[in-house]
Write a structure and sequence with these properties.
2 copies of one chain form a homodimer.
Chain A lengths: L1 H11 L4 H12 L7 H14 L2 E6 L7 E6 L1 H12 L10 H7 L6 H14 L7 H15 L2 H43 L1
Antiparallel strand pairs in A: 1-2
Helix pairs in contact in A: 1-3, 1-4, 2-3, 6-8, 7-8
The structure holds a DNA duplex (28 and 28 nucleotides).
Chain lengths: 188, 188
DNA sequence: TTAATCATGTAACACGTTACATGATTGC
DNA sequence: GCAATCATGTAACGTGTTACATGATTAA
């Protein structure tokens, strides 16, 4: 998956490994996180597959950099991936794993758990307005409004997910509060 | 994470590896999937940590089975994990990765993409009523209504997620349809 | 002058997937 | 008799994480 993400970025324009890392860190991290160590490893693989090629650049002022270009085979692979059927979604949610076993903790602990969750599990680092305006800035620079629309869709998803998460936490809290009330009545 | 999931299950009751696999497959797969090969490997680790112990049982009618029990140290570790602060959510969404680069495909292709998504990315294998009634059945058997509440919360999450995903797809489709309309007007 | 950024990696480990191997028991 | 289920694993590979190493340039 990371392979195809890197291919997608190199399809926009040639970059070095460090630049790829910064794009992931600054723009894609809300739906995909990648370490430099992994990126450089994947770049080796991509070159072995013949999907990218590299060229050492003697930069005027800066450090030497190893510029990476997508090849025709790489572009073909990118399109193949985009058009292939999505495999069944494989979920692996640490959040739900922990929720599932929370019966081992007290109700008060768990109310606290759900109160803290929306902050802890926030999708975006900065606030949403910033994300959208960053996206708008890209759009103007690159001047490909149709591509930018799909970038916006991913942000929309993040926003909707955050809202849903908050709603879910509220529901859980109110169900737990109800139990607390009926318990205290029962005790009298 | 899988380690703690297994600990949580063994905390409910002793089981063999195969039974753990069936619980993941039949009840937890909508938020966590695990292969037998991985489960058996993790079981070895858990035993090395001293969090579980095993006992070969000569079963009357069946195959021998290696029953697994949580230890006191294991119970302690389970609680430590439940009470520790949640680490920042690390997202890795193949769905959004693919969405991000869909500018390479035609608008019609993409409308189709979003139309198919809700089915492809369905959270539950069976329908939701079945999931809830399965959960109710467990609840009656185990007779721990307070634990079952948290199981229900995880199902609630899945249901809300599916709704949100559907809504998001609808939004994307309608934005794409708008562009198609304005394009065809512009062409005239 | 000192911290941040630019730039490229290696090594070891942890976690997840795929394929394979084996054999008993149970239900049709 | 045959397929499905019960039961336990190994091996190889792919992917992700953590820690480390190195050194130049740039801005405060």
């Amino acid at each position: 998956m990371l392979k195809h993400g890197i291919l997608g970025l190199l399809n926009y324009s040639a970059m070095n490994g460090y630049q790829i890392m910064t794009v992931f860190r600054d723009s894609l991290s809300f739906f995909w996180q990648a370490q430099t160590s992994q990126i450089y490893r994947e770049l080796q693989m991509l070159e072995e597959h013949g999907w990218i090629s590299s060229k050492r650049m003697e930069k005027e002022n800066k450090h030497d950099s190893n510029m990476l270009f997508i090849t025709e085979a790489g572009r073909k692979e990118l399109l193949r991936w985009l058009k292939e059927d999505n495999p069944k979604n494989i979920v692996r949610s640490p959040l739900l794993m922990k929720t599932f076993f929370r019966g081992e903790c007290s109700i008060d602990d768990n109310i606290d758990f759900f109160k803290k969750l929306p902050q802890q599990q926030a999708v975006f680092n900065s606030n949403k307005d910033d994300i959208y305006s960053l996206n708008n800035a890209y759009t103007k620079n690159i001047n490909e409004p149709l591509k930018a629309l799909y970038w916006k869709f991913t942000i929309d998803f993040g926003v909707m997910y955050e809202k849903m998460l908050f709603q879910w936490c509220q529901n859980c809290i109110s169900e737990l509060e109800k139990i607390k009330e009926s318990d205290s009545k029962g005790d009298k």
